[in-house]
Amino acid sequence: MAFKLHGIKLPDRKTTEGMPSVKMPVPETVTIPTLMHIGKPVTPVVKVGTEVKVGTLIAEDAEALSAPIYSSVSGKVTKITDITVSDGNVVQAVVIASDGEMTIDENIQKPEINSKEDLISAIKKSGLVGLGGAGFPTYAKFTSEKPIETLLINGAECEPYITSDSTTMVERADEMQVAIENLAKYFNIKEVILGIEKGKDEAIKKMEELASKIPGMKVKVLPKIYPQGGEKVLVYHSTGKVIPNGKLPIDVGCVVVNCSTMAGIGKFILTGMPLVDRCITVDGGAVKEPKNVIAPIGTALKDVFDFCGGFKEEPFAVLYGGPMMGIAVPDLNVPVLKQTNAILALTKKETAVPKETSCIRCGACVTNCPFGISAPALTKAYNAKDAEAAMKAGAELCMECGCCSYNCPANRPLVQTNKLAKALVREYKAKEAK
Which residues of 282-318 are buried (b: 16+ CB within 10 A; e: fewer)? Predict the structure, then answer.
């Protein structure tokens, strides 16, 4: 496995860097999907007409890999309906009409933690998932019997525009401290590394102050490159360890947790309040007033953009996340999700893609891939529907960072084809397993 230490250089475009977060007004309604995590959808435990408060459990599945979901507002359930989420899946969603009061559920209480098992249970109950965008249920990262040598906190935030994580590090260091101390104590973790890109001066200063209070913790200031925040890349650049293909960070003694997720763990330990809102960066050339916004989960993107002054011109594309790995949304009625770290409204100029031409075999895709994957080889395998060839070409290593497409002088949709090749491999493996 070949890592490229240099990565690629991207324009920052971080308009909201250094802006404190601001809480938006309570929306009239929220639409909360039952799938906001890697795993199975959870099942609603409320019905139409049920009165809910902030922090009321509205959906869960205690058995499957999942994360419970809680009401982000107080009010009444008006509908349980099917919606199409960003990956094209149709799932149930709980629609709640807010009463505007944001009354806290009286059952909210601090968890009692006296053991590793108590801490895992608390993290599961919190509803936390990877808040950097991946959405993997956080508690599941701590269920392995393998020892954790290094707790690696991901504060890289390497995509253009996005500053919600650096804002969280500045504003919620105290909550991060509580989470780190509990994890270190109950999992006997001796080394804690916070990886953060160079240039985030305020966040670096705050995290270095935090590290001075926690034995075994250090801040690793990393080169300003993309995709620095990719899990395998971050582990390698922060610890020197290589995660083999098909393996997880825990297989090399690491657990990687996003910095905003870490703050969420600390908040739950301190207050018992589960994940009900998100700090999201609202930016893009079409947005009148870019901001870092605290929004209730389930808020329609339209309401968030309206809070930011609306649009100064019609957006050509609206994305969940950043311009490299973000997902285009079909309309502005889709909701803020647990794993939403940014919403971007981009102009036609910002999204302009020159006409696609034939591959010139320049090798820029291979040179700039963090894993040295040959995108042309993957394309050839996919076009032939040859799953075995796709595996040999490294399909499963691809993290869909977009470095190949970004550097392709022929403007070929390489990352999209890579994604299709990965799906081909998954289908092949599923058939082989039967």
Answer: bbbbbbeebbbbbbbbbbbbebbbbbbeebeeebbbb
Per-residue model confidence (pLDDT) at position 43: 96
Q: Rg for the chain (alpha carbons), in Å? A: 21
pLDDT below 50 — which residues of the chain? 1-2
If we measure between CA atoms, which residue out of 109, 83, 92, 108 comes closest to residue 47? 92
Residues 6 or more apart whose Cβ sits within 8 Å of residue 305: 282, 287, 311, 332, 343, 345
pLDDT value, residue 1? 47
- Residue 73 has what DSSP assignment? S
Here the contacts of 425-432 (C-beta below 8 Å, separation 24 or greater) are: 425/387, 425/390, 425/391, 425/395, 425/396, 427/387, 428/387, 428/388, 429/387
pLDDT at site 315: 97
- Which string of DSSP letters, residue by residue, matches 113-166? --SHHHHHHHHHHHT-B-TTTT--BGGGGG--SS---EEEEEE---SSS--HHH
**How far is residue 399's CA from residue 155's CA, in Å, rounded to a whole number?**
18
